[in-house]
Amino acid sequence: MTQEVRRRGRNETEEERADRMWGELIQEVRVAQTGVQILFGFLLTVVFQPKYATLTHTNQVIYIVTVVLGACATGALIGPVSLHRLVAGRRVKPQAVRLASRMTFVGLVLLLATMTSSLLLILRVATADSYVPWLVAAVVAWYLLCWYGLPLWARRRHTSGSADRP
What we know:
It is a single chain. By secondary structure, this protein is mostly helical. The protein has helices at residues 14-46, 57-87, 93-126, 132-158. α2 packs antiparallel against α3. The radius of gyration is 20 Å and the shape is flat.
């Protein structure tokens, strides 16, 4: 077989693999996009509520940081759609899949930061108890376990050295 038609893994060419991986990536991004867009939309309304003026300076700073993180997460998670539109038909899908995968990973990290700071702000406003940082830390640990720890453990345990990489 020539280099152009050589198949690997699932017996697919590089272009077929890129098509499959693009479809999988877009399905994953849809879930994260929906969540970040809903969260970001709610965050945008907070500043227009009467209670916002009564927040402490620290809570207002946490809010501003949270909104900026949400905006950045939204941009990173919508980025793969724009990337696809701008490079469609240019025969660069394998490279586009790699770049979109990186954008999605960054978007998930930013979403984690947005959710963390949102939770911190909400719990600080809802209660002034000293356990708030510990509760937020426990939730972040849970996110890290679910989003990164278990997937990385599964990848290490169940893939061979020649595993497909995005």
